[in-house]
Records
---
Amino acid sequence: MDRLPGTLSVPYEDAVSNLVWIKLVGIGNANVGKTCLIKHFCESKFNSGYQPTVGVDYGFKVQELQGVDLRVHLWDLSGSSEYFDVRNELYSGTDAIFLVYDVTNMASFESLDQWIREVKRYANGDPEIFIVGNKIDLKQKRAVTSTEGKKYAQANKFKYAETSAANGDGVLTMFDTMLQTVCDKQVGGAKRPEGAIRREAQASEIYHKQARS
Ligand SMILES: Nc1nc2c(ncn2[C@@H]2O[C@H](COP(=O)(O)OP(=O)(O)OP(=O)(O)O)[C@@H](O)[C@H]2O)c(=O)[nH]1
Ligand SMILES: [Mg+2]
């Protein structure tokens, strides 16, 4: 349909009222594969070279879930302690966090507690936390077993997933489960009235519009 540039065929508020915005944040030690997981989800790509994230990076994907197009914002936070201050500014309004460790690197697993403390301190609104053991394709180098990973997640009442950003194993399932969990909590949860997600989507879009202008 032809329309004048810069105009909408329906009022702006109506146009955005059906949009659902979801904010996911990836954290965990440097080099565990956060950027690669996001790249796989958004672009189905993998890069074997390591380019550390400087401060923060960002991905976006429209993902269909049960007939609804979700606008998924993925915040990719650097794992380096150098960027602690940058990260802490970005946790606000997060729907779910994927806390990644590298299954070939015990130190990255042992750092999970420290990441949880950072989240509890700086994220408001009680985001869902997923523990993700990444690089499962490197079977010979595995240092943390599935049982250990699952046990840690269960003890903390978090969900658990294992992935390989290199060959894609488990990646889409992990993101789908996260999105499903967020949607169930927002729309179906007893605490929140139906339609809340839409009103928040609208508020979020207005916020983004204001931030852009
Ligand atoms: N074999 C294998 N390598 C992976 C996998 N995921 C990531 N890598 C490699 O691990 C290195 C680090 O990946 P990144 O995604 O950049 O790590 P990051 O967690 O974003 O690191 P920072 O940005 O420094 O916090 C890169 O060389 C990737 O190619 C995986 O599932 N399997
Ligand atoms: Mg990165």
Note: Helices lie at 12-17, 34-43, 84-88, 106-110, 112-122, 146-155, 171-188, 196-212.
---
Amino acid sequence: MRVLAGKVAELPEGSQVAVEVSGVSVVVVNFEGQYYALRNNCSHKDYPLLGGDVSMGRISCEKHGAKFELSTGKAKVLPAVKAVQIYRTELDGDEVYVLPL
Ligand code: FES
């Protein structure tokens, strides 16, 4: 079941928003014109990824600096070693949706 993340106009490049997908918080990121969605929870400790710095296709956890690849959810920088769950994004007209993979 897909969930509306927002209108394209509300999600410009560099923006982030968190939405609930089946009771799980998911962060949606517009990075270089592509939408990515990951579980909004660092795999190191219980900390949200929303608002973390995004660069080189990775989102940082602001708590201890781990970085996760937007396209795969893989942990690329310690102290996180486990991946975070990724979700699918879908563009439908001028709306962005998130759905489980
Ligand atoms: S809680 Fe994210 S790096 Fe520690």
Note: The domain at 3-100 is CATH 2.102.10.10 (Rieske Iron-sulfur Protein).
---
Amino acid sequence: MKTPPRRYDARHLIFSRLALQKGTEAYESYYREYPKHQAEDDALRPLDFRQALRVDKAFKARFFPLTRQNHVLLQALHDSLRQQPLGTQVDVPEGFEKNLKAIAKHYGACDAGIVSLKEDHYYTHPEAMNTLLEKDGEPFVYKKRPTALVYAVEMDRTFINRAPHFEELLETENAYLKMAFIGARLALYLKQLGYDTVFQSEAYYETPLVPLAYDAGLGEIGMSNHLIHPRYGDRIRLGAVLTDLRLPADAPIDFGLEDFCKRCALCLMNCPSKSIKHQPRDVLGRRFYKFDDLTCYTMWTRCGTDCGTCIQSCPFTQGIPYETLAWMKNHPSRIDTVIENHLAQHGRRAYQKSPLDIILKEEVKP
Ligand code: SF4
Ligand code: SF4
């Protein structure tokens, strides 16, 4: 019997596969070993999903640059961190993790937690999805560190409720930048204290962040396979710094999401590509759900954004009063009441069509 893998393999991620270039050794060896998706990946690879957005040329010229070139900013943040020399080590007192979490929140995180890193938190083949460079054009050198500070950045509901329109893409890209800024700020700080630290950002991940955030106690994994935060739902993006500073770890939380998802399934019902399945699966000891990343990405290439309908659909995204969580946990009829109230207020999804000011066309002056 084939032994199940004990670590996440970054080569299998849809973005890693789409980054493969035909004719290279990496492309040939990957599809030789895993031929299953080759034809579908080849068809998707040349497509720029944004071009599918149904807007005119003037709109594209004016607003598309807002969602491009973020890697230039990310590279600058990573470069600044690399140039920061490691300081003389400063002893930190017991309880310092509370300071660090408060500092993360001061710089914009809505929640933070600590994980003691184990081997299986790390990707195998992280280089498959990382496109930033460390120095002199060289790829990053990976090093295992003992601790992760994981944090969440809240996304604006008014933007998310416009999904799958352009506002949703603006907000997710915005959240990726905020998360990188917080990570860079924390990592610079910890290096000055004498603890070698890197931050995770779009285009540079050593670890998958959903399992890490689950272990840090930031939320539970929902049917959408996203981390669902008890206060902000699916309306978050995740970041992390990996550091040599050893800190006491937090524990996963249980607010009854597994039972809630079984009775809700709104993300599954609203997903336009049927990518979300109600089939739980165990991934390295955590409960995830079966998910088709290829059909999901294909939908992006049809709607012209990263869709986000599943994020918008989640009742926790729209807000369930925090005190309700303990009341409904282990009480199916109470969960049903919460879902019925959500449906009465928002319908099957809290979609709003009217464009936000940020992309309104200019007014015609009298
Ligand atoms: S982003 Fe859209 S297509 Fe992808 S899983 Fe979510 S709802 Fe489905
Ligand atoms: S929409 Fe419902 S089923 Fe999907 S993750 Fe949220 S609570 Fe779970």
Note: DSSP finds 16 helices and eight strands in the chain.
